[in-house]
Amino acid sequence: MGDQHIVTIKDISKQLKLSISTVSRALRGGTEIRKETRELVQQLAAELDYRPNPIALSLKEKRSKVIGVIVPEIANNFCSSTIAGIEEVAYSRGYYVTIFQSHESYEREVINTQLLSARRVDGLIISVSNETNRYQHLSSLIEKEIPLVMFDRVCSEIQTHKVVVNDYAAAFNATEHLVEQGHRDIAHITIANFLSITQNRKRGYEDALKKHGIPINKSRIVHCNFNTVEMDRSIRSLFESKNRPTAIIASVERIAIRCLNVLMELKLNIPEDVAIIGFSDNPLNNILKPALSCIRQPTFEIGKKSAELLLELIEEKTTEKSFQTVELGTTMDLMESSLYKKQ
Amino acid sequence: MGDQHIVTIKDISKQLKLSISTVSRALRGGTEIRKETRELVQQLAAELDYRPNPIALSLKEKRSKVIGVIVPEIANNFCSSTIAGIEEVAYSRGYYVTIFQSHESYEREVINTQLLSARRVDGLIISVSNETNRYQHLSSLIEKEIPLVMFDRVCSEIQTHKVVVNDYAAAFNATEHLVEQGHRDIAHITIANFLSITQNRKRGYEDALKKHGIPINKSRIVHCNFNTVEMDRSIRSLFESKNRPTAIIASVERIAIRCLNVLMELKLNIPEDVAIIGFSDNPLNNILKPALSCIRQPTFEIGKKSAELLLELIEEKTTEKSFQTVELGTTMDLMESSLYKKQ
DNA sequence: TTGTAAGCGTTATCAG
DNA sequence: CTGATAACGCTTACAA
């Protein structure tokens, strides 16, 4: 009752006047122990609520049962949902998850990888900061034989498992869907062009138009920055004239919401005048009205898949390494009311 | 170069033909070592990129430098922002954060606490599941001398530091603000009455009205469930008649957003016809228009404060325990356009 | 079937 | 100033 002291194998061995190793075997070992002894030990262990000290085990077995996760920001729907997926898999396999944030700083990311390897994590799952363009901190982990899985923000410089979203297909499908609804003049409002997600989504948009023989109108592709006021201005200028698009593919959540608002200010009806499909990580956007059709990133799945691949690397030391890049598909939450059929 | 092997003190001692203990002292110890020896050791250590093995340290010092966090769901703005705050403080003080989710299950929460104590975490920060109404799993941690801090969802049964939000004051201030804008008929739309946040917020709302001599009209206090359709119906019935409130205090984010939408459907202008202030954890709600004035939970601060209190418990074994309950204030993101002044 | 001893990496105590 | 040695909790040859 209220032991103050955490029970160890030693305590058990003393009480039972057995050697430490016998107790250990009784608890863990296979056959080489008398049944009665085993039962005796196990009973007392249960009584005393004995739990093996994982730290001692780690020291001995040179593994920690901890996997590290480095993300830019935890407080971000995409990241936190991904972590939920990681946690799910890790938990079910007896691993623990330790979180680090890079705060979009390369430097901090490097420090984090060092801390992690010092901590002897069994593996690392990372989505790199947007500053990161060198990867020596990651290759040095691999040299130390710490397995690595990259997700979302990946790079070609590192050979390892990668989990990404098929942004191209997402934009392609969304665009095609609008085309099938009868839309011919679809705008694509997006962010800085140098980002790979921007490029992939744009290609998807363009290829869908091409497939359906719709010419690409460069003036319908708008790149904005993240400042709300300027974003609004860009969107507004596209929709002020009579000759305006009838639909939008919004490349990021914030743009999608600004579109909703600007269009309402312009007294345009959604979706009768303009239909919108936007990439969005925010579950709440489903309950917006005028309705926003959302392209959902499979965040939870990304986490799960990343964790599964990592545990494979950690536990199956067997196969010669053949790394894969898994592309996960998005889903569309189509709000009927946001996708008015043209004609 | 690509060492394959993680350097230990032993490696250094061999290379330098010194004893292990000398090396240890050189690295850590104070004066009792020759300057040259120390420098020699430290130089080689740096060269080899030696990092003390934290697992060995933990085993020796019976502490892990890990703090556990149990939350209902990571993928939830409130929780993830809080964790960000915890991580911030922990990181700066050399601690690591390991995350567990209870998924709102009492059983899983209990298992998590057991795992944590088996893991020898140095402390725990927890927001209990909504199923939890017994607290033996927490008191048993305290018995094992694992310090504990509770946040947001706390209980009176456990004696420890607690960090909560002053929901009462938040609702009071928001309501008073509306009154000062000239509103006399303010609705309070909220959720199930048995929840403590519901009660606190309602009291705040009511007391603000009382203070200003406005009678409380029970029919203006609406409890809804979480089903969107029913929520809409409740809201709608409140605003359909001519004799409708001129303002709303929305007790949770989802309600606030549904209010926006229902009011728009009813062709009511926001804020000219109805002003809205809603509790909201979602930063994106700031960019909604019609504008939503938001009551922001100090999530990041909650995390930071919790971590600070926990580290105090962990590190300052000095003072006789005197536990405090810290009440943090909310902030209001007042959107001018959502708070039309009456008359 | 059981016990002894070494080892995982580190620090602390105690001799030299 | 430096080097053995024990100890942290546990597993696992190897001996008995």
Q: What report would you give on this structure?
A:
Two copies of one chain form a homodimer. Chain A is an alpha/beta fold and 343 residues long. Helix content of chain A is 43%, strand content 15%. Chain A has helices at residues 9-16, 20-27, 35-48, 54-61, 77-92, 106-118, 136-143, 167-180, 196-211, 228-239, 253-265, 299-315, and strands spanning 66-71, 96-101, 123-126, 148-151, 161-165, 186-190, 221-223, 247-250, 275-279, 293-296, 325-328, 331-333. In chain A, helix 9 (196-211) links the parallel strand 6 and strand 7 (221-223). Chain A is elongated, with a radius of gyration of 27 Å. The N and C termini of chain A lie far apart (77 Å). The interface between A and B is large, with 56 and 56 residues. The structure holds a DNA duplex (16 and 16 nucleotides).
Order of helices and strands of chain A: HHHHEHEHEHEEHEHEHEHEEHEE
CATH first level of the largest domain in chain A: which class?
Alpha Beta
CATH architecture of the largest domain in chain A: 3-Layer(aba) Sandwich
Range of helix content of chain A? 40-55%
Give the structural class of chain A. alpha/beta
Mean pLDDT of chain A: 90
Rg of chain A, Cα atoms, Å: 27 Å
Measure the end-to-end span of chain A.
77 Å
Using brief descriptors, characterize the structure shown.
12 helices, DNA-binding, 3 domains, six-stranded parallel beta sheet, 343 residues, Rossmann fold, 15% strand, six-stranded mixed beta sheet, homodimer, alpha/beta
In short:
By secondary structure, chain A is of the alpha/beta class. Chain A has helices at 9-16, 20-27, 35-48, 54-61, 77-92, 106-118, 136-143, 167-180, 196-211, 228-239, 253-265, 299-315; strands at residues 66-71, 96-101, 123-126, 148-151, 161-165, 186-190, 221-223, 247-250, 275-279, 293-296, 325-328, 331-333.
